Amino acid sequence: MLIPPLDQVLPDGSVVTEVVPRTGGSLHSVFEVRRAGAEPLVVKRYTDDFRAKQAKELYVYELLADVGSVPRVVGADLASGLTAFTMVPGRPMWEHPSSPATDRAAYLRIGRFQAALHRIALPGYGDLAAGVVDPVSDNLTYMRLRFARQLAEFRAAGGPVSLHDAVARRVADADHHFAACTGAVLCHLDLHEGNVLVDDAGTVTGFIDVENAQAADPMADLAKTIQFETSGSAAKRAALLEGYGPLPPFGAERIDLYRMFHALELWTWYSSIDHTEPLPALLEDLRTLSGRPA
């Protein structure tokens, strides 16, 4: 892995003592930059094909400046695709031994963090780059479009016709639930235990990875966390919702609708990479959530 030139993104006066490659996924390279007499930083380098992801992170972290518990951008160079961030201490929650007490405290904190995100209003529904991309003005239109695309991908990937049709019918009857969301907010939409950092005691230290963030219904964000992490744990789900606070009108119904969307999305993704183990459980979720008899 080549070490990038760092001068353009590090604070003035930084004396680099070591650069350590870290796991960064397939879209970019990530380095821990250790400095003499200063806290280490994380530097991320995006390839030319994924510069929109860099712009997205810069935009989202600017929105999160007053939220806390997330990385802070200390330097960015769009020409080279480099961004430097403060380092949030800790390791991913899913690497830490689990216990009922630490799980409850963590999910209370996750719920409070999501509630803070959802107080950040955005001007329309859509993906994010240096703003909302092609914003849609209302949630009903936005979710009709998203479900139509996701259902088509589900069928193209070999998803059962009966479940495709059951979900489509359920969505067609839910206009009033989608319309109950009257404004888009900042949603993380990937807030699973791999993106929640904890210390050695299991206490949450921060939240990372905003590459999936969108302007959306806040219940879609809660639903993604529930579908990804808590669908098999009533205790985790209860703590998440307790930390979040009161739900908006039709909140529980909206969560179930978005859980269907995320189950379709996850089933299609896992099928595309031939990861078959989760597929039966996701199909069962789709049966339950769509109201189709087994």
From TrEMBL:
It holds the Pfam family APH. Residues 19-252 form the Aminoglycoside phosphotransferase domain. Coiled coil: none annotated. InterPro entries: AGP_Transferase, Aminoglycoside_PTrfase, Kinase-like_dom_sf. It comes from the Bacteria. This is Phosphotransferase family protein. It comes from Actinoplanes sichuanensis.
